[in-house]
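Handout, section B. The chain below has 144 residues.
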Amino acid sequence: MNERFVKHATFVVERTYTASPAKVYQAWADPAAKAKWFSKPDIFEFRVGGREYSRGGPPEGPVFTFDACYQEIVPEERIVYSYSLDSDDIRMSVSLTTVEFIPTKGGTKLVFTEQGAFFDGYDTPEVREHGTNEMLDTLGKTLE
């Protein structure tokens, strides 16, 4: 049997975009806009208590499942959601994520904070933080 363990971690990633808080927020709140920089959702219920769910991955596998529940939404200010991430039938992690939209002169400072429990070495905070950096860079390109 494989050793079972949990690694807890928190990381913060910040980006400044030239787009307004309303536009950056809309990139998270609208399923068509979000699909341009994140996985296309199978379910997208953008409201407190609503669910966002997507399954996919490369043709050779594995299949990744993102299953989130929105805990708090303050339009153009913050989004808080909890989510699990699975690889095929293996639960890799469960996280709480807070996304803040802070107005700046000429744009928006986005602060992304993830507090995660990473299971049995299937994923690590370092890998997740790297992926988050890439994801937020892609978001920035869609806002240009």
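Note. The chain is about 20% helix and 50% strand. Compare this with the example in section A.
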